[in-house]
Design a protein that fits this description.
The protein is α+β, with helices and mostly antiparallel strands and 90 residues long. 29% of the residues lie in helices and 26% in strands. It contains one helix and five strands; from the N terminus they run αβββββ.
Length: 90
Amino acid sequence: MTNLISRARFIAEARTLIPELIAALEQFQWQPIETAKRDEMRSVLLLTPEGIQIGWWSDRAANWLADDGKYLWADPTHWMPLPPAPEVVK
């Protein structure tokens, strides 16, 4: 009987977490470049068919810049935020 209660509780808790998990996963899906924030936040930019580049929008340059600060060689078509950096254990 205890296993059934534990399993039922687990399933109930899992169901409440599913919307949060879906929202977290959707955050890291490719999105149209028109929806990208233009606040100098580094993002992963998709440049098709050339490849993928980390970059950000620069108001000063009025253009997308690569992570090294140079102009991108193609207009990005999609973007997604970079995932958080891993925690460093000392």
